[in-house]
## 1
Amino acid sequence: MTLRLGVIGTGAIGRDHINRITNKLSGAKVVAITDVNEEQVKRVVKEEGLDTKICKTGQEVIAAVDVDAVLVTSWGPSHEEFVLASIAAGKPVFCEKPLATTAAGCKRIVEAEITHGKHLVQVGFMRRYDQSYRLLKQTIDNQQIGEPLMVHCAHRNPSVPSDFYFGDMPLTDSFVHEIDVLRWLLDDDYISAQVIVPRSTRYTAKNLQDPHIVLLETTKGIRIDVELFVNCKYGYDIQCQVVGETGIANLPEPMSVLMRSEAKLSTEILMDWKKRFIDSYDVELKEWIDSTIKGEAHGPTAWDGYFASVTADACVEAKKTGQIIPISIPKRPDFYSKK
Amino acid sequence: MTLRLGVIGTGAIGRDHINRITNKLSGAKVVAITDVNEEQVKRVVKEEGLDTKICKTGQEVIAAVDVDAVLVTSWGPSHEEFVLASIAAGKPVFCEKPLATTAAGCKRIVEAEITHGKHLVQVGFMRRYDQSYRLLKQTIDNQQIGEPLMVHCAHRNPSVPSDFYFGDMPLTDSFVHEIDVLRWLLDDDYISAQVIVPRSTRYTAKNLQDPHIVLLETTKGIRIDVELFVNCKYGYDIQCQVVGETGIANLPEPMSVLMRSEAKLSTEILMDWKKRFIDSYDVELKEWIDSTIKGEAHGPTAWDGYFASVTADACVEAKKTGQIIPISIPKRPDFYSKK
Amino acid sequence: MTLRLGVIGTGAIGRDHINRITNKLSGAKVVAITDVNEEQVKRVVKEEGLDTKICKTGQEVIAAVDVDAVLVTSWGPSHEEFVLASIAAGKPVFCEKPLATTAAGCKRIVEAEITHGKHLVQVGFMRRYDQSYRLLKQTIDNQQIGEPLMVHCAHRNPSVPSDFYFGDMPLTDSFVHEIDVLRWLLDDDYISAQVIVPRSTRYTAKNLQDPHIVLLETTKGIRIDVELFVNCKYGYDIQCQVVGETGIANLPEPMSVLMRSEAKLSTEILMDWKKRFIDSYDVELKEWIDSTIKGEAHGPTAWDGYFASVTADACVEAKKTGQIIPISIPKRPDFYSKK
Amino acid sequence: MTLRLGVIGTGAIGRDHINRITNKLSGAKVVAITDVNEEQVKRVVKEEGLDTKICKTGQEVIAAVDVDAVLVTSWGPSHEEFVLASIAAGKPVFCEKPLATTAAGCKRIVEAEITHGKHLVQVGFMRRYDQSYRLLKQTIDNQQIGEPLMVHCAHRNPSVPSDFYFGDMPLTDSFVHEIDVLRWLLDDDYISAQVIVPRSTRYTAKNLQDPHIVLLETTKGIRIDVELFVNCKYGYDIQCQVVGETGIANLPEPMSVLMRSEAKLSTEILMDWKKRFIDSYDVELKEWIDSTIKGEAHGPTAWDGYFASVTADACVEAKKTGQIIPISIPKRPDFYSKK
């Protein structure tokens, strides 16, 4: 069986997913497509050589009878509407992050899905599909380090555009991946957040603080520190070290040639963030296609999207106040409990 | 367009390829299939849920009008016949190694293909598609180490079945991958071979020498040493270090979690060879499907299969005699010269 | 010239130093010695083959006319008295940590030394003499990572005796080395401390918390986090990572053979803390002897001992209260300012 | 007791040793000294502040009644004479390499020492005292890799003066350290040598081949390959990998700060060979002083110097002829057998 997909949004990530589905992965094809930019959707259809219907709106895509499942890759503020519509239509929907731009919006999706009674929503937290994170999770789950007690992380970019740092982008945009992947890695939830503000680098845009250190506490008492440094100059570098009762496991570095050259023994560090998780998108989409065909759902849920949103809000508050902010969220509904 | 494939041979590797084509990769489907074991082919068709015609013979598969291209994954001694038949039918053919069991057989294929006048044959040297070898080749091609002068390699298995070492299996079976991948890596040909016989491990089957060191010399004067140690106990470990005029590049290790545990800072070494190049089969098949659809040929050629066979023969001779054996092979025909 | 030393205290560390001075390093010899245990001092003199006067008290050692300088390796609570007496006698004194058991005691020594007007006191913070810390400091001082912004550290022991954890030993005993070496590394002082209490390992003595995370803030705004985990099981492991504006430098690991064995690529992690800084004691003593002969003083000062004591007290307070504790200390006197 | 030394030769290495003995290590002092250059010896005595008699000749140094032992650090061609004279005088002698400039000269020393009947001669093969080689030997001796079967080595210099490569300097001068340290590491002797000549780097002096690969075979059948590359550009790099029946051990890299900087994860490779084994000279001299005081001899013997000379000659012959050259040497005399 081939999964017939409707795609809403043909920007960078949307087009990448269309290419994956069409030219790389087996199991699905695009049958309906739309974008707010009519010229762009036509160009994508032509350049990718797609044999698909072009719709006027996302709602039309969702409603199309030959659409089995929906891919939401439109502008963030439109996500909530399309995800809710997909749920209303009873169609599985894969939504790029954010699930919604507010915690309240995420909560509405959670409630709609519970009311519908069947898991339909998957959020695009692709790090769970990255080979290095999967190896790390395997190590923890196999009890190779005993019970986790602490996690030391770093999220570093060589630099960010000066407008990126407007408001709390590092905490909401970059950090949300850490929030989700660490919950998944530890199979735990957060109960408090604190943000530490170190001396700022001179290489950040004017008046904008960089780096930050975020401290998170989980229900089991695991303590997480994440260095968030988005103008570190030297590379795009994602570090994660889990300290357990009997040993320590580190996220593997991306594969690289070991060089002896110019008085250095070295491996390469990526400068371009796009390369770091590129392969994980393939795995993510392929697993979503395969499980959707089987009528199953295994990926990050609407609840995960909601929890990420609430945690990011707490971090923003913690930064603003300098205080330790409790993360309060209703008890996880049975609907979202682990099998 | 979907490439319609005929598959000859449904043993381990055949079935793996069928699964790749059917469930993982886009662009091709199996439309005809055969195996000398009639029960087995039926079981495979059923278990994989294939919608394909079952043929009585490989010749019938090749002749089938709806078969665009052929996959030869049958018993080694039958390869030559099926590859020649595919050429005669003018159909692209992917043949698992060996291309033929003798250098003379390989030569017949080379001659048939030249006579036919179009590249149809690709040999299953999957290491060229492995990510770590590709990164290494990139480093060399980008002149990051200057001109290569020496290559130090190791091919190590934790152990081999005692019947494996019958005759010259390590030299012909394991080593043939080194022969091909190093020619590709260096873009060079061999002119002599020498085999050194070190003290033998006590962990080898009775009376059977292990390890060996093979020394190869290329037309450019590059010197290659390959340690071939198939009962090394500790792991399946493929090493390749290219020494250039200005630096050294090492084949990346497979990705692994860095552990601190039990008084050791460690990463894992694979014990199971099957895991080492598993991903490269996907890339190999996918690139073959895509280029075949375009009417192009980019992979290891019949000439590469022939050269590997001649080189392996020289190594066997070098071991037997203890001498440095010249590798003489006709000049590379224009048909197989680089574009 | 040979420096004639008086040694007060012949326990483990005292005897080690005596052996260094007598059999390994040039430039000094022991001419007077004492210990509260009369039997022990006799045994040490005999077993080490020393040609030295045995004194009844530390005061007698300090007063001896042929004693040029004093080595205090007695029981901690006696340090203050002997250091003050050495200052009073105008003799250089090397005192093992702690300089005094209270901040007030350290302050008295600082004041006595200032009054005396000449640098006489060196505290036994041997990490400053460790090759790996010196390489790290060189990297920072050479501006290879730009200005330091954050420091991530870990101090891990495989296990500690259950009575060790009595009171706040990890914070006062183990952590004091981190306190001193990080001040030296960064050439900076602390202004606040916070202690985070993660989930405790089950491998700690009953009712005793382990691990802790200590957060320190410096006058320049550098943020330091130190994981203090004294029952980590896997090894004695000292980690220090300095994050600067343009790069990151890590404390080198102790030298170790890289092994490929039993499915692991590994280096050894020490289990015995005594081996980690063993060589730094030689360097420390040798540099103290050489500078003392020249009438100079370069090592950790009484002020450094005082600052360490005040900081450790703040950490204990921070743990007790769960609050961020400001570290208030009088301005550094000119006497102790950098040349 | 203090060992009273006579020093013959005050060039670079001689002066370094004088400094070690005088200012760093306990147990010895220089009491007599000479050099063919009278001005130089006076300058060294003055600048190092030595309290020593200046002799006219090496013979006078050896004969001086207050000289307990002799240090030969003069010009290579004079070594044999001074070592023989020391033996004749019954005085322990430490001789920098080469023991003698010809195998015949080494043999004369061996015979004189046997005739004398007591071990007096130590040759300056300092690598045996290097911490990294000692850790590697420990690993082998502890049976952590089973019986050694193969050794893969590299001796690389960033560059050499163009006159260095006159004749066979790399084989006789650089390679002699490999010859000795590998015999010691494996506790084995060589029976044949072969030299392979790869494509030459363009960064070597005109018409001079670089690199070489030397193949050695031991009595136990262990096969050694040493890449000798003295214009490798990137660094001074000594590699040694011992392949045993159950695992592999690699010579540790020199300690270095792990950096993340400029898109690289790197450690430093030394450019200056002088730094690589600098610490091993201290250990070598200190152990020689201590054992000589005790009347014992533990270091590299005259026999080791002889064996190194014979092996180097075989390598030169192997290069000249392109043949595998047997290394024939009389059976090791009982006098030099292991205790």
Note: The mean pLDDT of chain A is 94.
## 2
Amino acid sequence: MKFSVGLEYALHCLLYMVDLPEGYSVGVRELAHYQGVSETYLAKFFTKLRKAGIVKAAPGVNGGYELALAPQDITFWHVVEAIEGKTPLFQCDEIRQRELLLDQDNLPDAYTKCPCLIHTVMNEAEDRMRQYLNEKTLAWLHGQTMTKIPQDHRKAMQDWFIKE
Amino acid sequence: MKFSVGLEYALHCLLYMVDLPEGYSVGVRELAHYQGVSETYLAKFFTKLRKAGIVKAAPGVNGGYELALAPQDITFWHVVEAIEGKTPLFQCDEIRQRELLLDQDNLPDAYTKCPCLIHTVMNEAEDRMRQYLNEKTLAWLHGQTMTKIPQDHRKAMQDWFIKE
Ligand code: FES
Ligand code: FES
């Protein structure tokens, strides 16, 4: 079980977008060029981010994307769901219903219909991860990153995106 | 990103094994038959559980498997790692090192060598899930399940495995 590499690109792209001055949209082509990755590759993830309501197509002839929500309203979990999909990590196939002796014993619903505890535990484990990722917003990520990034590098990066 | 169906089978198999009277080993063939699944399919997961030190080959001509640890020492997380592997959920490819302007700016190590915060957040999210799953042992699962399972069904199941 692994997260896809697309998630890493999606999160980094969104971080660049948060750092651009308000009102600037950015093209997938520029984001791809800046990160040394192919535009087609990145475009797939932007389609997912758009469908999830995290980015939106910018108006105007130049196109590109802008954030569809404020950075404090976009969490890591939103991005994970957008890229990886919404199905739970653990897919219970109700394998216990195929137990050999199940029909023969006339079992009460309390045993066969209640949620399987293995399933419940796995779902709760995912909840822990979800809760944590839902606390981490893009605004927080941006704030933290800005304390580390040298100001001239940040300026150079912004200028590059704005010029492109 | 998904857990494999093998994980569901592995956890259910281990639960059957915990419920057998001490000293009984169980064959993959019986576990497969009982659950209505192919033996070859299940055998793959038992190889993984054995490599992870969760089960061991039972001595004697009849073979089969028995638990290699006490049920209170086997956690859900052990089983997840055995079946899904030990690599972290989120694989950071250090994509930030390929940023276009990175060389040109002579950036300090504090920026380029410190762990990427996106990576850190994703690892901590997995930690939350791991912590939770490490608290849940097979002994606990067994205890909880035994309060729900009708006693005659449990007895019939044990008898079936012991007879086989
Ligand atoms: S039946 Fe699916 S986890 Fe138990
Ligand atoms: S470089 Fe891998 S998550 Fe940032």
Note: The helical segments of chain A are 5-19, 28-35, 39-51, 76-84, 109-112, 117-135, 138-146, 151-163.
